[in-house]
Amino acid sequence: MRIDIVTIFPEYFAALDISLLGKARRTGLLDVHVHDLRDWTHDRHRTVDDTPYGGGPGMVMKPDPWGEALDTIAPPSTAPCAATGGRSGAVPRLIIPTPSGRPFTQELAARYAAEPWLLFACGRYEGIDSRVVDEARTRMPVDEVSLGDFVLAGGEVAVLVMIEAVGRLLPGVLGNADSVSDDSFAPGAMESLLEGPVYTKPQVWRERPVPDVLLSGHHGEIARWRRDEALRRTAKHRPDLLVHLARGGLDDRDRAVLREAGFPVDAEDMAD
């Protein structure tokens, strides 16, 4: 997968050289290019922002540097070029983090992991001039994406989060492929439950023992315990996820665990 990032703080992405993503870059699974937006400015101050039309607080990122950056990285032409790896007509999916975008989810991460080329635009201040997005949509798919109902100083943190979520889903990035299927919110799962608690050696730590069932070697009982804990944790932290559980997918034990956790499994708003 190729990833391009446009930002006014290229140094922010040094984190992509470490851990799993750093290894993926070194082995060629990820081809990451970080671009400084100021390289497409033409004044001595390398200006990327200006006051908003219509008044109001803050500054808006100017369209000219962004337009030139996108034209260079993904030229508005079907001719083969260096940015497309010599492929005719190849275009990236442009992803713009913004509080007003669609929610970023594990399902969306899985969809992005299937893309050959992603281009991330890191906005700052009050955002990027909206004409940049409108023009980009005429020649490439564009997604405006939000990490949640909060505001960051800039898009860099959000882009790092998305790249890590996407990158770990690429074949060969994780040492154990089963780790992906066991994730909370795993793509393709019939239900979304949070993962329960996990343990490793030593068996007793600060007088706190590992639950006996995990030492039993009884795989059926271990699976049941893990599901019980997942149901309890989901009921406590994300009860909104439980309303999507199908009635037919809950056995008597599931219902008992959820009732004990205070979740109204028989309520009318439970999904059918």
Structure description:
The protein has 272 residues and is of the alpha/beta class. It is 30% helix and 15% strand. It has a five-stranded parallel beta sheet with strand order 2-1-6-5-7. Strands 3-4 form a two-stranded antiparallel sheet. A two-stranded antiparallel ribbon has the order 8-9. The longest helix has 19 residues, at 219-237. S-adenosyl-L-methionine binds at residues 123, 147-152. Residues 1-242 form the tRNA methyltransferase TRMD/TRM10-type domain.
Distinctive features:
two-stranded antiparallel ribbon, disordered C terminus, five-stranded parallel sheet, alpha/beta, 30% helix, 9 strands, 272 residues
Topology:
Blueprint: E1 2-7, H1 19-26, E2 31-36, E3 49-50, E4 60-61, H2 63-73, E5 93-103, H3 106-113, E6 117-121, H4 130-136, E7 142-146, H5 156-167, H6 178-181, E8 204-205, E9 208-209, H7 219-237, H8 239-242, H9 252-260
Parallel strand pairs: 1-2, 1-6, 5-6, 5-7
Antiparallel strand pairs: 3-4, 8-9
Helix pairs in contact: 2-4, 3-5, 7-9
* Strands side by side in the biggest sheet: 2-1-6-5-7
Q: Can you summarize the main beta sheet?
A: 5 strands, parallel
**Order of SSEs, N→C?**
EHEEEHEHEHEHHEEHHH
| Rg | 23 Å
Q: Fraction of residues in helices?
A: 25-40%
Q: With helices defined by DSSP (H or I, 4 residues minimum), what is the helix count?
A: 9
- What is the mean pLDDT? 89
Q: Helix- and strand-based class? A: alpha/beta
Unreliable stretches: 267-272
- Fraction of residues in β-strands: 15-25%
Shape: elongated
Distance from N terminus to C terminus (CA atoms, Å) equals 39 Å
Structure summary, number of beta strands: 9
